Amino acid sequence: MPGDRYSAGMTGNNHSQIRPAGAEAIAAAARLLAAGELVAVPTETVYGLAARADSEAAVARIYRAKGRPDFNPLIVHVPGVAEAEQLARFDERAKALAHAFWPGPLTMVLPLRGDAAIAPAVTAGLPTIALRCPRHPVMREVLSACALPLAAPSANRSGAVSPTTADHVAASLGDKVALVLDGGATQAGIESTIIALREQGWSLLRPGPVTAEAVAALIGPSLADIGSGRIEAPGQLASHYAPGKPVRLGALDAAEDEFLIGFGPVAGAVSLSPTGDLAEAAARLYACLHEAAAAAQTRVAVAPVPESGIGAAINDRLRRAAA
Question: Which residue in 131, 148, 163, 291 is a FRET match for 119, CA 20 to 30 A apart?
């Protein structure tokens, strides 16, 4: 087809079809999703590996393609609050958060409705569901075209560096995905913030672009514990986002066998942000980790990143990459 291209996957001869995310490609993606196939779609955070969330067979394809543990639940993407309320019970806090941060990079873990048309594997057997209303125009058009809730974890092998370009998806998943919609490099660059609303208060399960301070300003301070001790949402595994090499954090310089990722005054082979801009650093984080993974050096060193604001989310990903 004109405008299509094929990108080599990690397995050599396996390829993923990459198409620019125009109207015809989005219509094709909707047809594939309706048929239970996997489609990689850009969001404002990272590229997601989408499948219809009401089909056990389609959801099973996600787990097989990613090599993902079946105890790790999936985020379900919906176009708005009305669709979300068909799947989960919303209280006044959830409604306030949705009004403030949706569409956008906030995922809420909420009580699952008993009549929700969701494959059991999506929630990994939990009585809760993780929901997000994405902002990216391509993902929103896909949701509108297929009129289905879409389970969509990051479009990469489980535990590996998350994809921020269509080529990252193809390199990681090869022919395991039917179609990759190319919407360019993602904007936020790190996955959504995940919070769990509990009967008494709320917990931060994964830091992201929406800060804990912004959530607390709306619905009050979080609980002291981070999560419940079980895997309730993506990104909680101790080892995650890994480039396949040992990672050393807080580095001011690099050893001979280290690929240095710089930040601010610490120059490196690449830099998260030469000016020390945390938003730029978040957007570039996974691209830099992909470069480190492909480099000749056998280890990776990363310059210090402040914990303030979105820096907390960046450091969360880096600590898991180094685990």
Answer: 163
